[in-house]
Specification:
By secondary structure, the protein is of the alpha+beta class. It is about 55% helix and about 15% strand. It contains nine helices and eleven strands. β3 and β4 (about 50-55) form a beta hairpin. Bound molecules: zinc ion (ZN).
Length: about 325
């Protein structure tokens, strides 16, 4: 199974798909060609370097396992130039690498695939994938594009799924505000970790392991302020962890310089001498080597700590939301 196949490309319909749509009587709207081919509602679209075919149908776990086995066949995948595929409860999406002659491969695939779906008991057009019932004569139906895949569904089911999409999108918008709070939280957490680092560095303790604490506090800070659960979270925590490590290193050096200068000899030194001395030290190769080495060690452990903590929460990414467009 491939996650987020729909992400990262802008929907459009090129000339090859348009030509096929005309031949088969498919409609073109909202960047997709859609219609019924051999008993199944299909959706075709062009992306950057790919063509995507989706088929609407009711797929139980058992059927999904059988289809999965079919897609394990490397010869089958190669024959039709199938790059990725995704089997969901209400659709199968197949991504084809787009080179010369890809549309021919898709047309050939569409000549055999509906029969494969039928053999495996996938219910196609005429079956509502929203409520799981047949669309009996007398019931009105709509075609709705759900996350880029066209489905024919009961009119009342179309209303329900559109409402759910609206609610999810509203939640997503408020979630975006939480992203900013999460960034502040992660930064505060990692700076706090940086302070601990600075103190340890000043005291001359082995500091590398404190890096792990910075990563930990960054994540805690993100969550404490109610940061959004999304993929950006990982990047935010890693970046703030590095900022915390750099801050800790510089603060530790400042404390050490202060001890040597203004604290040791307040008559001849002032606080303003600290940054000056820091620059002097930075440009002195005798010291820079050990400073860089201590920073690299600490940053390594900080990132390692953040990575280990984040790996555990890898499953909490919830970027995917329901997006619907009523086609007809
Ligand atoms: Zn329905």
């Amino acid at each position: 199974m491939v996650e987020n196949i729909k992400k990262g490309f802008e929907n459009m319909v090129g000339s090859a798909i348009k030509k096929y749509a005309k031949e088969k009587g498919l409609k073109v709207a909202n960047g997709v060609a859609y219609g019924v081919v051999d008993g199944y509602m299909i959706t075709l679209t062009d992306g950057s370097g790919i063509k995507t075919l989706s088929v609407s149908g009711a797929i139980t776990d058992e059927i999904a396992a059988r289809l999965e086995a079919k897609f394990q066949d490397k010869k089958f995948l190669g024959q039709y130039r199938i790059g990725q595929y995704k089997i969901l409860r209400e659709s199968v999406t197949i991504v084809f690498a787009d080179t010369v002659g890809t549309m021919k491969k898709i047309i050939a695939f569409l000549e055999i695939f509906p029969a494969i779906l039928r053999e495996n008991g996938v219910l196609g057009d005429g079956f509502c994938t929203v409520c799981g019932n047949y669309i009996d004569a007398g019931f009105q139906s709509n075609v709705v594009l759900v996350n880029g895949v066209a489905h024919r569904v009961h009119t009342h089911c179309a209303t329900a799924v559109n409402q759910r999409s609206e609610v999810e999108n509203d939640i997503h918008k408020t979630e975006d505000k939480k992203l900013g709070r999460g960034i502040i939280g992660a930064l505060l957490g990692s700076l706090l970790g940086g302070v601990v680092w600075a103190v340890a560095y000043y005291m001359g303790w082995f500091i590398a392991l404190i890096g792990v604490l910075i990563g930990f506090l960054s994540k805690k800070g993100y969550e404490f302020l109610g940061g959004k659960v999304c993929k950006a979270k990982t990047a935010i925590i890693l970046v703030t962890t590095l900022i915390g490590a750099a801050f800790g290193q510089i603060a530790g050096d400042f404390a050490w310089i202060a001890q040597q200068t203004v604290l040791a000899d307040p008559v001849n030194y002032s606080i303003l001498d600290i940054p000056y001395n820091y620059i002097m030290i930075l440009t002195n190769p005798e010291f820079t080597g050990s400073m860089i080495w201590s920073f690299v060690q600490g940053a390594f452990f900080a990132l390692l700590g953040a990575y280990v903590i984040l790996k555990k929460s890898h499953t909490e990414n919830k970027d995917a939301i329901l997006n619907t467009i009523t086609l007809e």
